[in-house]
Each structure stands twice: as structure tokens, then as C-alpha cells.
Amino acid sequence: MKISKMTSRVLLGAALVGAAATVAGAEETLRSLAEERGRYIGAILNSEWFGGGWGGALEPEFEEIHKAQFNAVVAENEMKFDATEPNQNTFSYDKGDKMVTYAQENKMRVRGHALAWHSQVPAWVDNIRSKSDLLNVLKNHIDNVVTHYKGQVAEWDVVNEAINDDNDHGWRSTGSVWFKNIGAEFLDSAFVWAHAADPDAELCYNDYAIEWGIGEGSKAGFLLKQVDHWIENNIPITCVGTQTHIEISHESTPANVRTLAQELAKRNIVLNITELDIGFPQGSASSLGASDYEKQGHLYRQFMDVFLEEPNMGEFMIWGVTDAHSWLDGSQGKTQGLIYDKQYNKKPAYDSLVASLKAHPASEVKSPYGTVTPADTSASDTAAVDTAAHDTTTTSFIASKGETLGMTLSGRTLSVIGANSAKVEVFNLQGRPVFSEIVTKGSVELSKLTNGMYVVRIMDGSRAMQRRVVIK
Ligand code: G3I
Questions:
Q1: How far is the CA of 463 from the centre of ligand 1 (A)?
Q2: Among 87, 180, 298, 470, which is most exposed with the fewest C-beta within 10 angstroms?
């Protein structure tokens, strides 16, 4: 399996770079910037695009933006169990097929969501109590759906949200027809059956709240033990999806995603951000101002920074395009979580993503689809070096290995290393310039900047370097 998996990743990576070459010279978009970096950025297509659902067709802007800005797509509901097998052994692929055709026409990667999930299963499944009957139902479902989309869906959420929310995390039993009647072996079996149906598909475990840290008693800590169990037992898992439906107050989440990515890198597993949105409290929309949306952009930016800096992250999927159509405004107690506003205007979050992509030169961004780091000692060493280089809380930055141009920040004094004279520019996390000066005496005072996180760029002739810094 390993050989075919690696080959497929290399081919996918190559296809991506090839696609980027064809858009050279075209307007710069999230898509073009991600493609240049061998990465995927995507968003859902939702019920209204598929025709039906929440009452009315989507505005034409939705699809125009989707095609222009994204190179990956996932169906919000239409590949789930209740949509694909509404009645036993009667499969319904019309909407999923429509999305796959759209993806192929627009050269997008397709995520399949989701095969085994406790939610959105039809009543006929929920009523089954026999373990062997349910195993047969799950196997038949996975065989049919994965075979139908073989070679077209690049990656499946094989199991979704199977971990419970209790403090002593374990498998979800309440409300899960699968766990209640089969036990934990439903997860192992689901991966094995999905792999048998499409050996080249990437196979993910996907969940929420695994972006909350990996410490004792955490959901992610429990998951990491399960990933070890799956690897030891040759269960064909290749990726984890962290949903990342968060709130504006969750400022530590990007750092938690980085930690999770690094833990999974040691296990040769890819981490993808699969359902990102960053919501404000419900009812707050009318009182939100520019600084709130800048703050939201600030968080989006940090997720993209982590995504680009961790070599085993491949997809950055947003759970929607515009605040006009988002699941957040339903029962979630959140609102305004996406990167376009209700009128399809780009929000600061959009600019932040662009700024992050531009701050990470293509030559420095690795693609997991060709170069997933093997689980050996040198891999852990590399991770340790990277952590230090990207630690935004430290006050001094050393130039990366092999670079002679560098900077240190002590308090608010920024010193340039390795150049007599250099241009120092500082940008906020939306990529807007906030400071620029030619430094001739080796250092400059950044006294007028308000506290926060910034990107500093130093240029000396053709040499340039940039680092994220925290000004306190
Ligand atoms: O299809 C019916 C429609 O006929 C009816 O008129 C309408 C009236 O409410 O309901 C429609 O079904 C809704 C369905 O979305 C399609 O629009 C369901 O009520 C509604 O519960 C369902 O919500 C989806 C939710 O998953 C269900 O769990 C959201 O759209 C979808 O965004 C959300 O997605 C999940 C991911 O799959 C897993 N991670 C969390 C994420 C957010 O909850």
C-alpha cells in the first residue's frame, strides 16, 4: 500500500504544480497563490448550489468566487449517508456527481465527507440493532459509495466525530448507532473497507475540538493514541481532519493546530484543516466594527501561517464562502465566520490569507502529497528546529539555516544581522504596510507600533527575509 500511496501523492503534487503553471499571469487569487505553493485551499458547495435546501438558488457570485478562489471542494451535506443511501441499497449520486463534474471541469480536488458518522444517517439505519446486520450495512455503503467515486474523490472522511465530548475522552456511544451496536471495531473496519474500494484514496479521521490541544484528557490526546493503534495494526489511515469551527475568542487554537500537525508528522500522517470558520457571537453582527473583522483576519492569518509552515498539512478548507450562507447562523450561536461578507465583499480575513500566502515563498513551502516526512529520529529533530524558528512569542529571531541575513528583536529594537544597510518593512497580519525605513546603523526602533503580531521583511539588494514577530 505504501508504494501506491506515495506514488499517488507525488502525482497529485505534480498535477497541482502543473495546474499552477497554466494560470501564470492570471489574476492573483487564493487559488493561484496556493497552487504555486503545492497546497489546496477549498470551500464547501452547499445545498442551494445543488438546487434545493434552504429555499432558493444561490447568487451567481457564489460559483464565480468559488471557481476563482479555490482548488478544492467538499459537499456540505450531499455525500453523507442519508443523501447517498436514503433507502437500503438504493443509492443516490446525482448531487455528488454534479459536484464531481464541476470539480473536474475546474481542476479541483474533491474531499468526500463522510462515510461513517453518527449524524445524518437515515431512519432505516438507526432502527437496526443487530451487530452483523449493521456491519453488513456499513460495508455495503462504503463499498458502493467509494467504488462509485473511485479515482474521483481524492480523500474520504472515513469516520467523522466518533470521539465523545466527556472529560475522559473515549468513543462516542450516546447517539451513535455504529458504536452502540458494533463497538469500536466499526472504525477499523470502515478504514479497511474504504481502502479496499479505492486503494489510492487518502483516508482521514475527521473531528471537532481536536484543535484544543493534545494534553492529558484532551480529545486530540485520545485520537493520537488511536492513530498509534491504527498504525500498529496496519489500519490504512493516512490523514486526520481538524474541523476547526472556532470562535473569535479562541486565540490559542492556531498554536494547537501546529502542535497536532507536528505530532502527526512523527507518525507520517497528514493533518488537514477541513471545516474552518471563525464566528462572532450570534446577534452581534450589527455591532461589529472594522477592528473586529481585523481580529478575525488576524486569526485566519495564523491558521494559514501554520498550514504553510507545517510540511504535513495539505488542505485548508473553509466551511462556506459568504456570511450570507453559513450553517453558523442556524442553531450554532455564532455568526459572520467566513471570508466574504453577505454582499460578497472580501473581508479582512481574505486579505490576511493572501498576505500569509505571499509571506511564504513557494520555494519554502513543502507539499505533503510528495514529501511527507518519515517517522524517524531526524524527523523529530527537524520539527524541533522548525518550532523554534516559528515561535512568535520569542523576542529574538535567528536567520534560518544557511541564510546570512537575519534579525533580532529585543524589546522594540530590531537589529539587522549580516548587512550594513537594509530596508526594513513591517506589515500587519492583513498584509498592510505599517512601517518602512532604510536602516543604515544596524538597528531601528519600532516604537510607534501598537502591541500585536506583525510580519517584518528585511531586504538587502537581492537578499530578503521575513519573520513573524510579536511586539509587546
Ligand atoms: O434537507 C432539508 C430540507 O428539506 C428542509 O427544508 C430543511 C429545513 O430545516 O432542512 C434540510 O436539512 C438540513 C440540512 O442541513 C440540509 O440543508 C438539516 O435540517 C440540517 O440539520 C443540516 O445541517 C447540516 C449539519 O451538518 C447537520 O449535522 C449543515 O448544513 C452542515 O453544515 C453541517 O456540517 C457539519 C459537518 O458535516 C460535520 N462537522 C460539523 C459541521 C457543522 O455542523
A1: 51
A2: 87
